[in-house]
Structure of Large ribosomal subunit protein bL33:
Amino acid sequence: MAKSKKKAETVFLVCEETGHYNYTLQRKPGGEKLRLKKYNPHVRKHTWHLEKKK
């Protein structure tokens, strides 16, 4: 049997400090949740962002 292809899903990066949805990504399902240090324009500094599905 042929393997089924996993479609990319839209994932949001949410700031841990403010809770704002600042970034969106296309990513394959599975694996660990992302935790990246990204720029937050509301606070005007780099903060930690967590991956969330809306």
About this structure: The chain is about 0% helix and 50% strand. The longest strand covers residues 45-52.
